Amino acid sequence: MGECPAMEEETHPPLSPMELFRTREMVTVCAPMVRYSKLAFRNLVRRYGCDLCYTPMITSDTFVQAVQARHSDFTTNKADRPLIVQFAAKEGDDWARAAELVAAYSDGVDLNCGCPQRWAMTAGYGCALMRHPERAAGLVTQTRNALADANFTVSVKMRVFEDTKRTVDFARQMEAAGVSFLAIHGRTQEQRSEPVSTQAIADVCASVRIPVVANGGVRTLEEAWKLKEATGARGVMTARGILENPAMYAGYAHTPVECVREWVHTAIQTGTPFTCLHHHLIYMLEHTLTRAQRRCFNSLTSTTAVLTYLTQNLLIEL
């Protein structure tokens, strides 16, 4: 795709998403996270046992219409596979075209049906689509039909309803529309930190023939296995857990020093803006710094200041 010079096509990609589901006992997934699941972080977590990564959510209409949006919203490299590009979409033409634009540089596209933020709901994105399953199904079918490669996945990330039957019905409609797999956050649109409904996810897993990824409340590898066993899901996805500990899928209880070091190097090499570099470190060091140290570290305003703090106060050699 000549319009996106930052992208590099992988000539010998690793396992595709569907191959992962066929061969892994549990597929480990990094969730789509606005501002956070960008290229540098995806490159980092892949080194620590993460099988599959999502981009942050991208609005499909803007992506299609503006070259600048394509350059800023989607970057990748040879190490960044397998990769799912997540879109917020409400028009079939936009999402289908956006999928075609990223197809050569990724392994699948995902329709966000789970974002509960007010702006997304007002615009007709995210959870708003779950109120109109026929519209979501139409988006899936149109995009699936627009893609020439049958191995390129089209997936949906959804939430649960309070009524489990509605959750199962929505999942079945997405399966009938042609999705390759589903990711399910086990909380409703209104819930934030409440316990995840493992039963609702389990009911979906038992009701569809496609792979299901369970999402919600996972912060350690042990918790990932427990969620998999409780639901019967083929994979487990985490957001906050992997932010706090990018090495969690490798079995680390907290972010190891070498992971902090790798993050700094990777972020600098990929030109990651200071704010992003800093915010990730704030999450990673949450269990390392004292309250007083956190106040100091969180107030730093430059990459140089961060590097100095890490070397002088935490004795991390960079």
Defining key terms:
318 residues; alpha/beta; single chain; 45% helix; 13% strand; eight-stranded parallel barrel; 15 helices; disordered N terminus
Chain-wise SSE layout:
Layout: H1 17-23, E1 27-30, H2 39-46, E2 52-54, E3 58-59, H3 60-65, H4 67-73, E4 83-88, H5 92-102, E5 108-113, H6 118-123, H7 133-146, E6 153-159, H8 164-177, E7 181-185, H9 198-207, E8 212-215, H10 221-231, E9 235-238, H11 240-244, H12 257-269, H13 274-284, H14 291-298, H15 303-313
Parallel strand pairs: 1-2, 1-9, 2-4, 3-4, 4-5, 5-6, 6-7, 7-8, 8-9
Estimate the strand proportion: 5-15%
Oligomeric grouping of the chains: single chain
**What share of residues is helical?**
40-55%
N to C succession of SSEs: HEHEEHHEHEHHEHEHEHEHHHHH
Taking all Cα atoms into account, the compactness measure Rg is 19 Å
Distance between the termini: 36 Å
The total count of helices amounts to 15
Segments where pLDDT lies below 50 for 5+ residues? 1-11
